[in-house]
Amino acid sequence: MQIDEELTLKKLEIFLAFMRTGNLARAAAELQTSTVSVHRAIHSLESALRCPLFKHEGRNLTPMESAYVLEERAQKLVQDVLNTVEQTRAAAGFSAARFKLGALYSLTVKTVPQLIMGLKIRRSELNIDLILGSNIDLFYKLKNMEVDAILVSLNESVSDPDCEQLALFSDDIFLATPADSPFAQQSEVDLSDLREATFITLTQGFATHRDGARVFQQAGFEPKVAMQVNDIFTLLSMVSSGVGYALLPGRIAAVYENRVRLIPLQARYRMQQHIGLVFLKARERDPNLLALLAECRMYSNRLEQV
Questions:
Q1: pTM, 2 dp
Q2: Res. 266: pLDDT tops 60
Q3: Mind listing the pLDDT tens digit for each residue in 177-198?
Q4: Within 10 A of 184 (CB to CB), how many other CB atoms are there?
Q5: What sign for the dihedral angle of Cα 183, 253, 245, 256?
Q6: Which of the 8 DSSP states describes residue 269?
């Protein structure tokens, strides 16, 4: 026997509401529909099942044994379907109880903590995993659905027709020097004066590595690189210890602020990073992502008002 196309989950929900309330009007009020719609759904359900469920006694519907059997089985069926939908969406990362957020190391100084705090207020039940990495690594994880959204530099490495972007703020690139460097007291620096200096950089794949290379190109020289590191905090530690200079975004100014100075570059060398949220278009209706987007917009608006 094939399932009749008139037998739908919606009609079973209406039937269960009527069995719970025992009254067409109360069932209609619970479902926010009309008594006519409830009556029509029950009649259609009887036709689809090819058997009666109720005795029609005037305007009253009295459940038969068949109705009680259907009620017991339908309750389990509807709950199984709801559980199936929830598990399926969770497997795809939609409205799951865990949200995986990717971010640049430098954004953990200020941006990421504020966004996570706001997201937890909006969705207190949500568990948030923070995955740190470079622009390229994080974008790879996003495309492979290993993370739900990423906070990165909005450059060509994260430009993709399958993704949406939400800009948060722009950040200038500075020269990072030890506090006792002769450049530390300057109001701005001519980068060409550091032609013979030693530099520390992030490894390839980081947006700051790419932006730094472009600044050096504008200055007309290839830097003498003492070492490359995999996170911005190790780089700052090296700068503070006098190992070398670095080109870094202004958002990390609060780290080692007594031991590292960020000096503006002369106008001809100035470059900005544009920081924002990137996510897959296919997931733009996910409630967890919508909550993060709302928090990102609020964060961006607060920065504009400062």
A1: 0.69
A2: yes
A3: 999 998 988 999 999 999 999 9
A4: 15
A5: positive
A6: G
